Amino acid sequence: EQKPKRKALVIYDTMWHSTEIMAEAIAEALGEEGVHAEPMHLRSRHRSDIMTEVLDAGAILVGSPTLNNNIFPTVSDFLTYLKGLKPQNKVAAAFGSYGWSGESVKMITKELEEMKFKVVDPGVRIQFVPDKEGLEACRELARKVAKELPA
């Protein structure tokens, strides 16, 4: 039935821990909004295990650093796998860090829109390590997602 629960997955990979810091801030803020949220590092969890969690999640937030003007390879792989399984009824958003160009967030957002997810924000992009303002942007993203989930 793919009925979404008040559950969010914060699926990400990271190069120098900046995207990981963002993922943790997002998951924490979702929890403060009463959403069961779990950060899921793509190199620490098998993608099939993550996909099992996706089935009943109401929201998916995908985070990636930008590498060579692109999405980080493990995140790209996950998105390809996700697209093939055609999950439905999901709220979504993207986030990520970058050094120079920062294309990954826009690219992830486009992928999520193509999967017919309800994208609630153009995404949070932070250059280098998130500062206080950047972390607040992550928390605001979490609040936007939480508002779209069933009570």
A few lines on this structure:
The protein is α/β, with parallel strands linked by helices.
Characterise this structure:
- The protein is about 40% helix and about 25% strand.
- With about 150 residues, it is of the alpha/beta class.
- Strands 1, 2, 3, 6, 7 and 8 form a six-stranded parallel sheet that branches.
- The longest helix has 17 residues, at about 130-150.
- The mean pLDDT is about 95.
Explain the layout of strands and helices.
Layout: E1 5-12, H1 18-32, E2 36-41, H2 47-54, E3 57-63, E4 66-67, E5 70-71, H3 73-85, E6 91-98, H4 104-114, E7 118-119, E8 124-127, H5 132-148
Parallel strand pairs: 1-2, 1-3, 3-6, 6-7, 6-8
Antiparallel strand pairs: 4-5
Order of helices and strands: EHEHEEEHEHEEH
Tally of alpha and pi helices = 5
Low-confidence stretches: none
Q: What's the total count of β strands? A: 8
